[in-house]
Records
---
Amino acid sequence: MASSQLRTLGVLHHILGGLSLAGAVVFGIILVFGFTQEAAEGFTDPVGKATIAVFGVLTIGSLIGGVLCIWSGLHLLRHTRPGLCTTVAALICLHVPLGTALGIATLVILQRLDTRALFDIAGARR
């Protein structure tokens, strides 16, 4: 049962990671558009510069979050690196609302004894 739940969580982590990467593309497009508009105006508008900074942070954050989520999903499928999986699960709780639900479910399942045993068995094989 724990193995199938980890497989499901791994797939859901991949889906959320893909959504985050898609969001990064959208934020990146908005960032490029805003940057070109501000460059045409000589970067004189302080609100425009702040908006560029915000979308820059959103783009980078979405990229990092998406990659971490996919990486964690791979380790959930392989039953390796429980610390990484736990850390990423805690971090994706900030990704409201989908990440919160997935993060909490992942944290709950990772704390169960049968799940820990799967990670221990996989660690002993390496």
---
Amino acid sequence: MFVEYFYYLKERLPVSITEYMTLLEALNKGYIRNMVDFYYISRSILCKNEHHFDVYDIAFYNFFKDANLQFPEDIKQEIWDWLDKNIDPKELEEMGINFQELVSNFNLDKMQKEFEKLMKEQDDEHNKGDHWIGTRGTSQFGHSGQNPMGMRVGGGAGMRTAMQIAQKRIFKDYRKDIVLDTRQIKVALKRLRRLEEIGKQDELNMDKTIDQTAKNGGDIEMVFEKRRKNNVKLLLIMDVGGSMTPFAHLVNLLFSAANQMSHWKDFKYYYFHNCPYDKLYFNAQRNPDEAIDFDDFIKKYDKNYKCVMVGDAAMASWELTERYGSIYYYHRNEMPGIYYMRELANHFKKNIIWLNPEIVPEKWMSWTRKQIASIIPMYNLTIQGIEESMDYLRKAGIHQFTTVERFKNYPFPSPKYY
């Protein structure tokens, strides 16, 4: 039975034979006397991380109680098959939707419950409808439709206004090895430096040596100084996937240039999607086991680090304003995205900037972009933008007029959870 249970768990959790043998050892030594003991001891041995507890609980109940509970990541395969189609944009029709009414009556919690209800009830493909999970309709669930306040299931990003997505998106890490076209970016990044003298006076200063020799009428006088090294510590935090996909090459260039430079005293990088929440990730796959808690991140990196955030700031407004507003259906962020933006800005003070690869006139900027720009100084991800942002960081914002001042009076909804 325990062998079967091990293989059942292995389908869902990263359990190993070593942990299984440890569990058998606990059984043999008499530490487990009943099912309650077995549950707690087996969970402590087989679960490497508390993030696995929910999945473990469902697996335990299904295996030993013959239950049929649905795992969080499970979505009916039939629905994926229906949705996994190429949609001709010409098929989309004008449907006369009252967007303002949808926005004013929107309820995120109600949408999530309705999605789970439909998942249990739907047994057929639906297109151009207003209720079931499908495509090209006004329903809140599916893709390629006309509802701006819905949950995307399958398909690709369209209007970039989906409140949530009910799938796990696997993104690619930005590359470290790009060489072509990074020279100009490196030159721009080198504006950010704070040189400090280190070690002994063993480095020849050729200019001063020539100058002093000339003053001595030709008698050579060698002038030595201490070596100088850049003392800047840099954090690069990058939005990845979704609406950032068209800008992947540009961000690759930036990341590759920053990563190749021996210019920094310390260089670290993290990933997020749309908005930082309670975790920042070590890679683009956003695996919870390969992440740092936001609070730990703030403690680990003091305010002397220079923080560069990269993203298009394009998302549904709910991600900034609402608890549980994360675009990922199974992610429950207790605080809205704007809270984490403000925490970063308050922590790093004048040592944080935002680089945006999407260059648009100010009058066309999205609401979310203006909100973020009112908190963190935002620059275009261009050579000029990088140079200006590095000057801002180097001078600690002194005599700099940024987007924070420009958008400081931009309206924001009444706070709910922050």
